[in-house]
Amino acid sequence: MKTRLWLVGIALCFVSMTAYADEIPKIVTSGLEAYKTTGFDEAFNIWLKGSPLESDKTTLMKLKGPFTQIESMYGKMIGYEVLRSIVISSSTTRIYAEIRYEKGPLFLFFDCYKSPDAWIIPMMKFHTELDQILPKTP
Question: Residue 115's domain spans which residues?
């Protein structure tokens, strides 16, 4: 009996983790992995592919510039963690994440939109101060 309960518990944990992973559009994690392995230029290429920001050079510079500053202050990226996924609608999900550097974290959110072709990121925001990114909870 105990063995069956244990197996049911493990199965529920696996289903729960799989459901959570399914809520994270691959465009987010692919960009985070690219950042970790090849740098933020490739991450931005992935994150902005197909989005309204992809061809806007001014916005690209405004997004990439702070990453250079953050890396010069905080050091090399050493990892990341997806903190939360909030499904807004059947076509929109907000993903909160943390990028870990040698000397501190960067917090971000990605607004992911399911276009007719694929998931895209029409909006992202990042800051070193947690309360500038995560919503306040009561």
Answer: 25-132
Helices (H) and strands (E) in the chain, counts: 4, 4
For the segment 69-91, what is each residue's pLDDT rounded down to a tens digit?
Answer: 999 999 999 999 999 999 999 99
- CA angle at 86 for the pair 118 and 67, rounded to the nearest 5°: 70
Beta bridge partners of 126: 108
Q: Whole-angstrom Cα distance, residue 93 to residue 75?
A: 30
CATH number of the CATH domain containing 30:
3.10.450.630
Number of structural domains the chain divides into = 1
- Determine the residue type at 117: D
**For residue 18, what is the DSSP state?**
H
